[in-house]
Specification:
binds zinc ion, globular, two-stranded antiparallel ribbon
Length: 158
């Protein structure tokens, strides 16, 4: 069940470019080395998660400190401030829409900041695997877990 109209959905989808960054590669390598198999660049999924493990309904997003307005590292460019304010606000709003979509559809959604991935990609992979195990054992209390390693952590109990 889609919470958006067809027009809204395609607009959101097209505004989120699929990307293949160094950071995603780092995480993928870690997951792969731990035996986690997944599809990369899953185009059919809403918001184009950076990594998606369909089997366990786990969607992973790596949020760029600049484009997603990291509270620690985002620095507003000196010129065109109005443009940038609007742009970043729109991105954050879109992140929330995407997050809501996965929550409503029973997925585990994990969002990590770029700076956390850079700092310790193997710890991020550990977190992802922990969630997959919880899902797998059916013991998980949390349907959704949005985790920021900077201490900003939100759990949604369903
Ligand atoms: Zn950051």
């Amino acid at each position: 069940m889609d919470v958006f109209t067809k027009e809204q959905r395609s607009k959101i989808m097209s505004s989120i470019r699929s990307k293949e960054t160094k950071l995603e590669k780092m995480i993928r390598k870690e997951l792969w080395s731990r035996g986690i198999r997944y599809r990369k660049n899953v185009t059919g999924l809403f918001g184009s998660p950076d990594i998606a493990i369909k089997k366990y309904k786990v969607a992973i997003f790596i949020d760029s400190c600049f484009w997603h307005g990291c509270p620690i590292h985002y620095r507003r460019p000196c010129s065109n401030t109005d443009f940038w304010d609007k742009k970043i606000r729109k991105n954050i709003l879109r992140d929330n829409i995407v997050t809501d979509y996965y929550i409503q559809n029973g997925w585990i959604i994990l969002r990590f900041w770029e700076h956390d991935v850079k700092k310790n990609s193997s710890r991020i992979a550990d977190e992802i695997i922990k969630m997959i195990r919880k899902r797998h054992s059916r013991k998980q209390r949390y349907n959704i877990w949005i985790k920021r390693l900077d201490g900003n952590e939100d759990n949604f109990v369903h």
